[in-house]
Amino acid sequence: MAYSEKVIDHYENPRNVGSFDKNDPSVVTGMVGAPACGDVMKLQLKISADGIIEDAKFKTYGCGSAIASSSLVTEWVKGKSVDEAATIKNADIAEELALPPVKIHCSILAEDAIKAAIEEYKTKQAK
Amino acid sequence: MNYFDLFNLEPAFDIDTALLAERYRELQRAVHPDKFANDSEQQKLLSVQRTSQVNDGYQTLKNPLRRAEHMLSLRGIELSHETTTLKDGAFLMQQMEWREALEDIQHSQEPQELVDELYDSFAEFEATLSKKLTSLLASSDEADALLAADQIRKLKFMAKLQDELARIEDDLLD
């Protein structure tokens, strides 16, 4: 199966790979996994006091499409408010990367990683 | 298609695999296209279809994970090709750590030692999941079936880890 140019670009030059200090109070983590392929994705967001995502990092163990999907969302969420980031849909990711149907679950994984991180943010805020 | 019926086996997770293999050989002989060489085209086609069904059934029941998935599918819970994500934080954190450990093997002074340790850790964790799965599949309760599905999902991650480890070990021997 051929990967699109955008997938190859993100796969070969992944943006924002790594981790933040998880003890930093402004950092939240979203962890998700895809049982179908065993891929695991960790997305961390650094969120300012007024709810703006200042920075994002990811670590993904998986195929090229999973890595590209997570790399892309770290670029997309930066500078967005938490509420704006929550509106990112897997279909947007799949369209941008021209993912074939068998790889749609990689974009779902990335969408769910954002949601999981935001969920942790909301839980933290409620405290 | 209920493969347990096809092989005339009790629908249980801990099937007798020797008996499965025996029934498989019997069925294979009974439906083999060679037996229908002098029959109508329709009969021949039917025999080819039956053969492929018997092969699929055997592959499904032989593999514990696929057998478990088949049992749930017979109860209306479809796990194959699903796109739902797993969100169990503690489990995923452990997966992440193991993936990192796999990466460390290449840079280690004693790679084989690390490989052996990981094989043991994976096997131990997998045994715990399988044990839970066995008891959950024995229950007819709907809630237990859903919990069984979660064990299967986790076992798929373990299968992936073991594949990766085997691949890395192969590379070490090169």
UniProtKB/TrEMBL annotation, chain A:
CDD domains, per the entry: IscU_like
Domain (NIF system FeS cluster assembly NifU N-terminal) ranges: 2-126
InterPro entries with a match to the protein in the record: ISCU (IPR011339), NIF_FeS_clus_asmbl_NifU_N (IPR002871)
Listed Pfam families: NifU_N
Transmembrane spans: none
Protein task: A scaffold on which IscS assembles Fe-S clusters. It is likely that Fe-S cluster coordination is flexible as the role of this complex is to build and then hand off Fe-S clusters.
Family label: Belongs to the NifU family.
The protein's name in its UniProt record: Iron-sulfur cluster assembly scaffold protein IscU
Native organism: Shewanella inventionis
Automatic annotation (TrEMBL), chain B:
Organism field: Shewanella inventionis
Protein name (record): Co-chaperone protein HscB homolog
Quaternary data: Interacts with HscA and stimulates its ATPase activity.
Protein's job: Co-chaperone involved in the maturation of iron-sulfur cluster-containing proteins. Seems to help targeting proteins to be folded toward HscA.
Gene3D superfamilies cross-referenced by the UniProt entry: DnaJ domain, HscB, C-terminal domain
InterPro entries: DnaJ_domain (IPR001623), HscB (IPR004640), HscB_C_sf (IPR036386), HscB_oligo_C (IPR009073), J_dom_sf (IPR036869)
Chaperone in keyword set: yes
Residues annotated as domain J: 2-74
Signal peptide: none
Gene (UniProt): hscB
SMART domains: DnaJ
UniProt entry keywords in alphabetical sequence: Chaperone
Keyword Glycoprotein: no
Pfam families in the record: HSCB_C
PANTHER family: IRON-SULFUR CLUSTER CO-CHAPERONE PROTEIN HSCB
Membership in a protein family: Belongs to the HscB family.
